[in-house]
Amino acid sequence: MTEITFYTFADDPLDVARRVAAKAHGQGKQVMIYAPDPAVADAIDRLLWTKPALGFVPHCRDSDALAGETPVLIGANADALRTADVMINLHSEQPAAFARFERLVEIIGQDDVGREQGRARYRYYQARGYALKSHDLRQAD
User: What is the predicted pLDDT for the residue at 52?
Assistant: First the structure.
C-alpha cells in the first residue's frame, strides 16, 4: 500500500518539492512531480534547473522524448515513468494514479485555501485506509 507523507506549513511548497525530489533521486528513486497546472509545472521546472547552484536533478516533462530515460518527470502522466517509486503532488486534488506509487508526498503551504484542500485530501486517504505521516515544517527550524 502507498505510504503517504504530508509536509505541512511549508513556507515555499515548490522548494520543499525540489528538495524531496532531489533526495529521492539521490536514493535512486524514480520521481513523478504531479503538476497538471502548466504554470506550476513551469515553476518547478525552473527551480530544478537553478537550485542548488552547484547541484542538478535530471528532469524533464512527462511528454518529452527523453521521459523514458529521465529519473524525475514533471506533469500528469504517471505512466511515463519506468517505475512508480515517488509521486510529489503539486495539485489541489489527489492524483488519480497515486496508488501505483510506493510513496506519495503531499506538500501543504500556509495559506487557508491550500490548508483546507490538504485537509480534504488527508480525509480522502484516511477514509481509504492509507497509513498517513505528517511533518510540521514549522518545527523543523
Answer: 77
Written as nine digits, the cell of 93 is 486534488
Residue for grid cell 518539492:
17
Q: Residue type at 101?
A: F
Strands 31-34 and 86-89: parallel
- Asked if 140 contacts 15 with a C-beta cutoff of 8 angstroms, the reply is no
Kind plus residue range of the DSSP H or E element containing 74: strand 72-75
Question: 3-135, superfamily in CATH?
Answer: DNA polymerase III subunit chi (3.40.50.10110)
The per-residue pLDDT for range 103-132, each reduced to its tens digit, is 999 999 999 999 999 999 999 999 999 999
**On the CB side of 124, how many CA atoms lie within 13 Å of its CA?**
15
Tens digit of each residue's pLDDT (9 = 90 or more) over 3-37 = 999 999 999 999 999 999 999 999 999 999 999 99
Return the SS3 of 136: strand
| C-alpha span between 64 and 47 (Å, rounded) | 18
Q: What is the pTM of this model?
A: 0.94
Distance CA 64, CA 48 (A): 16
